[in-house]
Specification:
This protein is α+β, with helices and mostly antiparallel strands. It has helices at about 1-20, 25-35, 40-50, 60-70, 75-100, 100-105, 115-135, 140-170, 170-180, 180-195, 200-205, 210-220, 225-245, 250-270, 270-280, 285-290, 340-350, 360-375, 385-395, 395-400, 440-490, and strands spanning about 300-305, 315-325, 330-335, 380-385, 405-410, 420-425, 430-435, 435-440, 505-515, 520-530, 535-545, 550-555.
Length: about 575
């Protein structure tokens, strides 16, 4: 029995060594590599080897298939997969809400993947784009109208999701009003002294300005000018009120959306005084000049560039120890991987968990001078106070002990890319630069920052409960050595939720410009930060007077860091 306990302990230690690997197997990694090379048929086959259509990853399976088929131009197949994802996401969300506590106690990797608000929005985004592409390809007028009507359905579903999110989480204007209260400002200042440097209200994903803008494009294509006007205006207000600032986007997207709001007002008629007020109050001089270029005798081209791949979540290992003299628990990062990954892990821990408060630093200085101050920001000490007695009754400090236990949480490395601006040329003439309209990388990172506290609390609770149970079972089998072996096995099975929709782009860029009716040759060139050409795309498009054509393209950035390579 003792030998068996030793073997269990060694196996547990081995598991700790391999922990931190990606959530997916080789099949998904190969699928992503094929996507980068444009081998979409191979990408779909590799995906089927990595994810199961009926397992815990079934939502991801349909999300990834939907995106791959969209890239391949198989829009009907993409919509079938995404509709399954839409239904699954709603069912899983309801299921999670029914028993949140039970779900939190389970290893995230052993649960069905639920998806998040960002992914749910992009299900309808891609479906809307699919129907738009089908409409533009259709030769039959009735078929074209049918596809545009279906695109409108998806955009209304998207509208409903975004409106519900704004209702539940508040608007940018409401957040601004709260921040303006003197007492709230004082609380923010003192909160920083306590070491919490994150403004959680600012991190909330409460709306999507770019999705609202695309809704305007699709409504306009369908001839729903009133809905288009409302969507463009909503996009303009969101970009202006905080969306551009929150997600580090091009400030000119607000100008583009205001320009389109006024343009639609003119096209619909009956908004003379209101449109003039917006021109005077919202449009810059450059935008006023551009507005006159969008006449009824011109066509329009909207270019949507999806950039690269969204970052992949990774695992950050933490070491939890008990300190009876201080009646406290202490958390420290266990850095692993490449030197860059170690630096990223250390930065994430410092940002979210390190003891950064003045009293923490003073305590560290008293114990070890400047070196003691340095230690405080690389650890998190939590005095339990009166709760220590309850913890002792549950055998938590005794079983954690000085050797400690392993806790695992998700984190993101910064997006590293050498891509700079993108310019579009029409028939060899410069037509302008694309604007950064959406940053999905910022969306997912800020969403993870917002959830870092709950993730940590759930991970600590799971790890503690599991290790106490395992240590007690090991103690009955093999005394002290069996107890250590039980703890090692429990720590080795710790895992964080690192699954996500990986074929999403990390960013979206947009350009819109008028053209003369007829056939046009478009060229899109993305430059590196050094000024060299990083990637280019070409497209021939025929546009009629009063018509808007949309070109959607995906640019794979060869310099982007890829965790799955």
């Amino acid at each position: 029995m003792l030998r068996r306990a030793v073997r269990m302990g060694l196996a547990g230690v081995a598991l700790i060594g391999v922990a931190g690997c990606a959530s997916y197997g080789e099949g998904v990694s190969q699928s992503l590599k094929h996507v980068e090379k444009g081998n979409y048929e191979k990408a779909e086959k590799s995906l089927e080897k990595g994810l199961e259509a009926k397992g815990d990853d079934k939502l991801l399976y349909h999300l990834e298939r939907g995106a791959i088929n969209h890239l391949a131009g198989k829009y009907e197949a993409s919509n079938r997969a995404l509709e399954k994802a839409h239904d699954l996401a709603d069912k899983l969300r309801s299921k999670q809400a029914e028993d949140y506590l039970a779900a939190a106690m389970v290893n995230p990797r052993q649960m069905e993947y639920m998806g998040n608000d960002i992914e749910r929005v992009y299900i309808n985004y891609y479906k809307g784009l699919n129907f738009l592409m089908l409409a533009q390809k259709a030769q039959d007028e009735d078929k074209r109208a049918e596809h545009l009507e279906s695109a409108g359905v998806e955009i209304r579903r998207l509208d409903n999701k975004l409106s519900a999110m704004e209702f539940n989480k508040g608007s940018y204007e409401q957040t601004k009003k709260e921040e303006e209260k003197t007492f709230a400002q004082l609380l923010d200042i003192f909160q920083k002294f306590q070491g919490n440097w994150l403004d959680e209200e600012w991190l909330v994903f409460r709306e999507d300005a770019y999705a609202r803008y695309l809704a305007g494009v699709l409504y306009e294509k369908s001839g729903d000018l009133d809905d288009a006007r409302i969507s463009y205006r909503k996009a303009a207000e969101l970009y202006e009120e905080g969306y551009s600032e929150q997600y580090h986007l091009d400030e000119n997207m607000a100008q583009q959306a205001w320009l389109d709001t006024v343009r639609i007002m003119r096209k619909a008629g009956g908004y003379e005084s209101e449109s003039q007020r917006l021109i005077d109050q919202k449009l810059s001089e450059a935008s006023r000049e551009r507005l006159d270029e969008f006449g009824p005798d011109k066509g329009q081209i909207v270019v949507i560039q999806h950039m690269g791949m969204v970052p992949q979540r990774k695992e950050l290992n933490l070491h939890l120890t008990a300190h009876p003299n201080q009646r406290a628990l202490r958390l420290e990062p266990v850095l692993s991987g490449t030197q860059q990954e170690k630096r990223d892990q250390a930065a994430w821990f410092f940002l979210l968990y390190g003891d950064k408060g003045v009293m923490d630093m003073l305590s560290g200085f008293a114990e070890g001078g400047l070196a003691g101050v340095g230690r405080t920001v690389t650890q998190k000490t939590v005095p339990l106070g009166p709760a220590w007695e309850l913890a002792e009754q549950l055998n938590i400090p005794q079983n954690i002990g000085g050797t400690g236990i392993r806790v695992t949480v998700p984190y993101y490395s910064p997006l590293r890319t050498n891509a700079n601006g993108t310019r579009v040329r029409v028939n060899g003439e410069a037509a302008g630069e694309l604007k950064q309209a959406e940053s999905i990388s910022q969306l997912v990172v800020q969403n993870q920052l917002l959830n870092a506290g709950p993730d940590l609390h759930a991970a600590l609770a799971r790890a503690t409960l599991k290790n106490v149970t395992a240590a007690q079972a090991g103690g009955m089998l093999g005394g002290g050595l069996g107890q250590l072996a039980g703890k090692a096995v429990a720590s080795g099975s710790s895992a964080a939720e690192t699954r996500s929709w990986l074929t999403l782009p990390y960013g979206i860029r947009v350009a819109r410009f008028p053209v003369e009716p007829g056939k046009h040759n478009l060229k899109l060139v993305t430059q590196s930060r050094q000024g060299t050409n990083l990637a280019s795309h070409r497209k021939a498009m025929s546009v009629e007077a009063g018509q808007t054509k949309v070109w959607v393209t995906r640019t794979i950035d060869p310099t982007q860091e890829r965790p799955y390579n």
